[in-house]
C-alpha cells in the first residue's frame, strides 16, 4: 500500500457578497452549517476517515477563523491551517509539497464527499500527473433529476466537475499559472476549452473526441499526463453553490442517516 497522500482543502472566500450567507450569522462560506455541521467539518471529516489521506491542510484568507471551529478539533488526523492568497491557483502553488510528490485537492463546499469517493478517485488517478474527478450527466440525473450543474459537452457524454484533483506536486506549476489567468471563467465551459487552443475548442464543438481525450490533449500542452476520473456516484458533483443545492444536500444527508 502506498503512503497516504496529503490533502489541500480550498476554504477561502471569493470577492463580493455571497447570497448563501445572507441571514446565516456566519461570515465565511466554509462555516455555513449544513445538516448540523459546518461545510468544512463534513469535508475534513471525510478526508480524516480515509486511510488513503495523510496530512490535511486547510487554505483560507483568514485560516485562524476556521481553526476556531470547535468541531474540527474533535476530528482525528493531522490538520493544518494555512493562510492563502486571493486566487485559487496562486494559493495552491504556494501550498504544493516539494518535488513531484502527489497531493489531493478538494473544496470546503464539497460537503457530500465520502471516503469511498476519495478511494475511487485516487485509484483512478494513480498513473497521472494531473487528474480531475468528473461525473457524467446521466449518472447524476438518474438519481437527482432536479440537480442543475454546469456541463461540458463532448463525444460520449456531458460532464460536470466533482471538485477533486490530484496534482503531482510542482510539476503542476505551469498548469496552475495558466489557470490563474482563466479561473474567472471557471463556470463558462466553452471559454475554458477555448483557452487551451482553437483545435481543442473545435474538437469539443464538433464532438470529435471524448472528454478523456480532450483532457489528455490539454495536459500535453504543459508536458503533463492528464486524465479524467469518471465518478460512479452522482453526489460527487453536487456542491453547495446555490440555496437550491443546500436543500438537495440536506435531503441527501437525511437519506444517508435513515439508511
From TrEMBL:
The chain crosses the membrane at residues 39-60, 189-209. It comes from the Bacteria. GO terms for molecular function: nucleotidyltransferase activity. InterPro entries: MobA-like_NTP_Trfase (IPR025877), Nucleotide-diphossugar_trans (IPR029044). The keyword Ligase does not apply. Pfam families: NTP_transf_3. Keywords: Magnesium, Membrane, Transmembrane, Transmembrane helix. Residues 27-137 form the MobA-like NTP transferase domain. This is 4-diphosphocytidyl-2C-methyl-D-erythritol synthase. It comes from Sphingopyxis witflariensis. The lineage of its organism: Bacteria, Pseudomonadati, Pseudomonadota, Alphaproteobacteria, Sphingomonadales.
